Amino acid sequence: MKLKFCGAARTVTGSCHLLTLDNGFTILLDCGMYQGREDEFGEFNSNWLFEPDKIDLLVVSHAHIDHIGRIPKLVKDGFDGNIVCTHATRDLAAIMLLDSAANQEKDAIWANEKNASRGITEIEEPLYTTDDARFCMPFFSGYNYDRWYLIAPGVEVYFADAGHILGSASVTLKITRQDGTETYVGFTGDTGRWNRPIIKDPVQMPLVDFLISESTYGGESHDELPGDLNHLLEIVNETCVRNKGKVIIPAFSVGRTQEIVYMLDKLESSGKLPRIPVYVDSPLAVNATDIFTMHPECFDAEITDYLSHNDNPFGFNSLTYTRTVEESKALNAKNNPCIIISASGMANAGRIRHHIFNNIEDADNTILIVGYCSEGTLGSRLREFPDTVRIFGKELVVRAGIKIIDGLSGHADQAEMLKFLDNQDRSKVKKLFLVHGEYERQQKMQGALKGAGFSNIFIPELGSEFVLD
Ligand SMILES: [Zn+2]
Predict the structure, then answer these.
(1) Could you read off the pLDDT tens digit of each residue along the chain, which spans 469 residues?
(2) How far is the CA of 155 from the centre of ligand 1 (A)?
(3) Interacting residues of 183 by C-beta distance below 8 A, sequence separation 6+
(4) Calpha distance 261→435 (Å, rounded)
(5) 8 Å CB contact between 437 and 9
(6) 444 CB neighbour count, 10 Å cutoff
(7) CA-CA distances (angstroms) from residue 125 to 42, 46, 112, 166?
(8) What residues contact residue 97 under an 8 Å CB cut-off, 6+ apart?
(9) Dist. CA 164 → ligand 1 center (Å)
(10) Cα of 15 to ligand 1 centre, how many Å?
(11) How remote is the CA of residue 238 from the centroid of ligand 1, in Å?
């Protein structure tokens, strides 16, 4: 049996690992898109480190684009096996992949217009189209958590809740070898945190012989507790009540937006939220919120209890969801205090850039950053409290306040990761591979895991292959 690392190797995006069984049967774990540096983007995403038509099965950990983003291309390039994931991941994937395809179509049109204006005749094609995204959906099959399912001859899968986003799971494969023995291969996917809003806490994986583990926050610890309502309320009161300004929140449409809305919902139902309008300005967030309400099996005890005396944890009187561009533009004209939540979370694209552009030069306003922002994005620039920023080619003076809430991070820090893996039998785990992390942080995670009694810990390079025996 062999394992090849085809993505998220010494970096955090493009999750993709290829398991080849003794009999030649091939299982891909995740099929993610690389979202890092722009100059490496096309190269990684257009090329495979395997032949797509030779892949027999795809198992998916969760619906973030860096874990599913190349599935329409995989199918377009010849894959025709089953795609196995949890029910909620399947439903989120449907809207995420369509949104991703629409963005790529838009980017290609924009690039071709730019090329044409420079006299370049070469045509740039999108990685895949909305038709390709629709076409791949019948390949998906949804499964439940916490049960073993036979998904191919001699291959069983077990999804345990990863507590990262709705539907997220760790993947454990039980493989019956040709000599009748069983080998367990585990893949953490992205591991979440305990006590986060809405979704359940991470559930430890079954005991495994080989483990692929994420390592995003090696050497790091999150200081803030998840879902601190008081911090959010303070920022809203200071900006909207005292300064009569606007709070602008860049947030991912899936996950972070629902968490913020649920926090505001709780403040509203307890009578603490000031009477100001709240806008969620993202069509994808509207669709994602519908999918959240369809999957109460993924909810934690707190929101389940909350639901028993509130109709909707993602809706209250002063909250408006906006879908159309006209509605979005109309928000610019409003001068009254309000909260605007919009995507993308790193403010590198989407409607949020317009809201930041229109509001950053007014000292009454606050830009509230609630998530991780990759280097080179507007979000990461704002996290440095700059004096000026450049948006749409214009240099703007940053007069608005910039506030950061880091407690909503969706990834376990180092201590939480060690807690998550603590049930594993150190003498059973023969090899442990670290993926989904910057190399420096992976080295720190490697040291911490060694200290916790694990051995044979590898940090594979892209394209490297290991024998699992
Ligand atoms: Zn993720």
Answers:
(1) 999 999 999 988 899 999 999 999 999 999 999 876 666 777 889 999 999 999 999 999 999 999 999 999 999 999 999 999 999 999 999 999 999 999 889 888 988 998 898 898 888 899 999 999 999 999 999 999 999 999 999 999 999 999 999 999 999 999 999 899 999 999 999 999 999 889 999 999 999 999 999 999 999 998 777 778 999 999 999 999 999 999 999 999 999 999 999 999 999 999 999 999 999 999 899 999 999 999 999 999 999 999 888 878 999 999 999 999 999 999 988 889 999 999 989 898 889 999 999 999 999 999 999 988 877 889 999 999 999 999 999 999 999 999 999 888 889 999 999 999 999 999 999 999 999 999 999 999 999 999 999 999 999 999 999 999 8
(2) 25
(3) 1, 174, 175, 177, 209, 210, 468
(4) 32
(5) no
(6) 16
(7) 11, 11, 9, 32
(8) 68, 69, 71, 72, 133, 136, 137
(9) 7
(10) 9
(11) 32
Please tell me the distance from the alpha carbon of residue 439 to that of residue 316, in angstroms, as a whole number. 44
Q: Where are the beta strands (DSSP E) in 317-435?
A: 319-322, 338-342, 366-369, 388-391, 394-397, 401-404, 431-435
Nearest Cα residue to 126 out of 90, 80, 72, 78: 72
Neighbouring C-beta atoms of residue 448, cutoff 10 Å: 18
Closest CA to 421 of 247, 202, 225: 202
CB atoms within 10 A of CB 231: 17
How far, in Å, CA of 261 to CA of 283, rounded?
15
**Cα distance between residue 7 and residue 46, in whole Å:** 12
Residue 314 in tokens: 């993602």
pTM of the model as a whole: 0.91
- The closest of 233, 329, 305, 310 to 276, measured between CA atoms, is 233
Q: Residue 440 C-alpha to ligand 1 middle, in angstroms?
A: 20
How many angstroms separate the alpha carbon of residue 414 from the centre of ligand 1? 16
DSSP 369: E
Rounded distance between C-alpha atoms, residue 214 and residue 191, angstroms = 7
Give the ranges where 27-85 is alpha helix by DSSP (H): 38-46, 65-68, 71-76
Q: Where are the beta strands (DSSP E) in 68-191?
A: 82-86, 140-143, 148-152, 155-161, 169-176, 182-187
Q: 417 C-alpha to center of ligand 1: Å? A: 15
How far is Cα 25 from Cα 209, in angstroms, rounded to an integer?
19
DSSP string, 222-291: --SPTT-HHHHHHHHIIIIIIS--EEEEE--TTTHHHHHHHHHHHHHHTT-S-S--EEEE-HHHHHHHHH
Q: At what angle do helices 256-269 and 283-294 cross, to 10 degrees?
A: 70
